Amino acid sequence: MNIVPQGKRSGVLLVNTGTPAVPKPRAVRKYLARFLMDKRIAPMNRVGWWFVLHLFILPKRGRVSAEKYEKIWTDEGSPFTIAHEKLAAGLGAAFDEEGLDVAVRCAMSYSDPSVLDCVRELKDAGCTRLVVLPLYPQSAYSTTGSVSDSVEHALKKARWDVPCDFVDNYHDDPTYIRAIAASIEHAGFEVDSDDKVLFSFHSIPLVDIEAGDTYELQTGATSLQVASELGIDRNRWTIGYQCRFDKGREWLTPFTRDVLTRWAEAGVGRVFFICPNFAVDCLETLYDIDYELKPFYFDQIEQAGRTPDEACFTYVPCLDRSRAHLRVLADVLRPHIEEVPRD
């Protein structure tokens, strides 16, 4: 990673996937259309895919997904948006307390505020250097790579020729590892017991790995280091992958559901379920785990002839807008931000 050159003011751009503006079919379709037309997400023929997506997929998926978003929405709005706004504000305040001249913005790849809008804001704020941090601890072609595409396009569109440092990943950052381990313990995990940890990551197509994507290596490294931080043996934890996009391609396995099935049949101790590659809780955690994966696990236990209880499955929330998460992001970003005297 290259340190950005000396400048007057650093601009930090945090980037994540995004969320619909409201939990309604029309807004969800708009969001999904932007997401699913990304060539890194759906590498199909652009014209043919556009028609299939808009005529056959979005009408149904927009309605179904809107119902899911309704269940996780809060009185304040999207929990995803709120968490990112808090992170940007908290990170800006933390750097300000350190005497660092930093402007922080948080952009979304497929919703608002867009990467282009935030790049323009940082340019207008007088920033003379830029640090981009995709909020994906483990980098992947379909996530971090997409952010790289968006930032490159936005800089050209904004006509901003600025030194830019792109933080590709932070999967083994010591502060991140300690924060994940601490969150597991805070959730009630007992080291001196038979409690188990399931590290569940978003799956990616095998073709990406065959093309050189190091995502699988990073998920493994994160899990191993967190387990070492907890001080638990290999038989106390495993890895699963969830949220495959389609069935037309082979995806990174083992799938999380298959792991849960094996553990239900084996009658393991309490399961602590955590998603270390999601920086902020979103539909894939707030809905999928509570409404799909947890009930699925309980059903598998019943099929194995036992009666499940609430204590046998604990979801460990994402770092989200916590102080621990702010420390992680600040530590990841700090080497890329030089201390510059204020005017």
Description of the molecule:
This protein is an alpha/beta fold. The chain folds into 2 domains: 178 residues, Rossmann fold (3-Layer(aba) Sandwich); 136 residues, Rossmann fold, CATH 3.40.50.1400. Helices cover 46% and strands 13% of the residues. The chain contains 11 helices and 8 strands. The strands form 2 sheets. A 4-stranded parallel beta sheet has the order 2-1-3-4, sandwiched between helices. It has a 4-stranded parallel beta sheet with strand order 6-5-7-8, sandwiched between helices. Helix 10 links the parallel strand 7 and strand 8. Helix 3 packs across helix 11. The longest helix is centred in the N-terminal third of the chain and has 27 residues. The protein is globular, with a radius of gyration of 21 Å. The N terminus is likely disordered. Its EC number is 4.99.1.9. One of its GO terms (cellular component) is cytoplasm. This is Coproporphyrin III ferrochelatase.
In short:
The protein has 343 residues and is of the alpha/beta class. It folds into 2 domains: 10-170 and 322-338, Rossmann fold (3-Layer(aba) Sandwich), CATH 3.40.50.1400; 174-275 and 283-316, Rossmann fold.
Oligomer: single chain
What is the CATH domain class of the largest domain?
Answer: Alpha Beta
List the secondary-structure elements in sequence, H or E: EHHHEHEHEHEHHEHEHEH
Biggest sheet: strands side by side, in what order? 2-1-3-4
The portion of residues forming beta strands comes to: 5-15%
Q: What is the approximate shape?
A: globular
Largest sheet, in brief, is:
4 strands, parallel
* Count of discrete alpha- or pi-helical segments spanning 4 or more residues: 11
CATH topology (fold) name of the largest domain:
Rossmann fold
